[in-house]
Amino acid sequence: MSGPSLSTCGGQSRVFRAPGRVNLIGEHTDYNDGFVMPAAIDFSTWVTISPRDDRVLSVYSENFREQVDFDLDDAAPRPKRHWSDYVKGVAVTLEQSGYRMRGAQLHIRGNVPLGSGLSSSAAIEVATGYALLENSGFAMDRSELAQLCQRAENDFVGLRCGIMDQFISCHGQKGKALLLDCRSLDYRLLPLSDEACLVICNTMVKHELAGGEYNKRRAECEVGVGHLAERLPGVRALRDVTTADLESHGRDLPELVYRRCRHVISENARVVKAGAALERGDLSDFGRLMDESHRSLRDDYEVSCDELDLMVKLARALPGVYGSRMTGGGFGGCTVNLVASEKVEELKRGVADEYQKATGLAPEIYISNAANGAEEMAAEA
Ligand code: GLA
Asked: Which residue has a Cα nearest atom 5 of ligand 1?
């Protein structure tokens, strides 16, 4: 299945928006060719763009109150571990893929909390990519744009992320979660029930994924795949391995790699079951799978942290909470909770007070509606 194409239309200054996301279930499975179930959220990045006659991109970030200019003809563009790397990375990747860009003025602002596991990076990449393409008169299929932005993050920024964040930022739909097969990029949109809300609790502990523990996890999965592929024909990724396969052919793996593989394999199975639970309207089963996912991320994949575990524990002790888990890359950031609509206020108060008492940090809590993916906004008057 592929989404609608991005089309061109006239005008001098144009505005493009792309959202962040929350992942309901399916963590660290995307780069293992597995399954994920994110939804786009009501937090976005907006890029206002107007063309220039040269080949300079002049970029102003309202959030950082900073201006960066760079030349599209720069022969050796390099990342600087700076917010502008996401913009530059997308521009460089577009050029390398054969799209000759026009120079432009870009004004960027956003309200996706940074470093919170809600994909502020994908939001800026997708909004920038969409704006740059349109500014140069190109149209691109949404799945292709997602893949291009992923390549920018992998090859320029240096995080070997999977496709989930960029994909949902392109394909999100109001009121729907998206069940994605990260190998084929086939997806199904699943309606979210009115009986429950998605509540996102921000631990206010920032994560820094680029280059560090995240890439290490990915490398550990690759060691697992190498070992299992020698024993099991047809294995290309952990997606191709079942729990029974791992038990019979993975026992001589290093213990740590074994646990990493066990998380990914069991998480893939949970996403498939969670999709079925959502389709049956079985929120209790869905919530139970979220709880299991958190335990597996905490114990086997080791990407949680004390603050996330505490946030989950506090939510789990309250009535009306179907399930609670960390969301996104981990090491800080947010939890996602599936909560009966009439119990949301109680959860907000309960979690905020107890969390602050225990940690001294005031958490932010967002009630999230599933939102639409990237779009061009109507011109401002
Ligand atoms: C980050 C990455 C995604 C995905 C998640 C973990 O958000 O960008 O590709 O791997 O972590 O599920």
From this structure: 329
| pLDDT bucket at 207, cuts 50 / 70 / 90 | confident
Tokens of 240: 């191709």
Nearest CA to ligand 1 atom 2: 161
What 8-state DSSP symbol labels residue 5?
B
Dihedrals phi, psi of 138, to nearest 5 degrees: -110, 150
38 Cβ below 6 A of ligand 1: no
Q: How far is CA 298 from CA 26, 87, 105, 277, 294, in A?
A: 14, 33, 44, 23, 6
Which residue from 200, 180, 161 is spatially nearest to 335, judged by alpha carbons? Answer: 200
pLDDT tens, residue by residue, 152-161: 999 999 999 9
The rounded distance, in Å, linking the Cα atoms of 314 and 296 is 18
Q: How does pLDDT run across 126-144, given as a tens digit for each residue?
A: 999 999 999 999 999 999 9
Cα torsion 168, 173, 175, 177: sign: negative
Q: Average pLDDT, whole number, for the chain?
A: 94
Distances (CA, A) of 146 to 142, 276, 346: 6, 26, 38
Residue 164, ligand 1, Cβ within 6 A? yes
- Calpha distance 108→126 (Å, rounded): 12
Token duo for residue 222: 């690759």
Q: What is the DSSP letter of 141?
A: B
SS3 helix, strand, coil % of the chain, rounded to 5?
A: 40, 25, 35
- pLDDT of residue 209 exceeding 70, the answer is no
